[in-house]
Amino acid sequence: MCHNYNTLQGRNLHHHRNTWETMIEDDKKSMMENIHGADCDLSEQIKSVTKDSHVRAENTELMLCYQRGQISLQQYKLLLCSLYEIYRALEEELDRNSAHPGVAPIYFPQELARLESVEKDLEFFYGQNWRERVIVPAATHRYAQRLRKIGKENPEFLVAHAYTRYLGDLSGGQVLGRITQKSLGLSSGEGLSFFSFPGVTSPNRFKQLYRSRMNSIELNREQREGVLEEAVRAFECNIEVFDDLQRMLSRKCVNEKETDVRHRHVADIRSHTPCEKHMQAEKIQSSDSDLSEQIKSVTKDSHVRAENTELMLSYQRGRISRQQYKLLLCSLYEIYRALEEELDRNSAHPGVAPIYFPQELARLESVEKDLEFFYGQNWRERIIVPAATHRYAQRLRKIGKENPEFLVAHAYNPLPG
Question: What is stated as this protein's family in its record (predicted)?
Answer without folding.
Answer: Belongs to the heme oxygenase family.
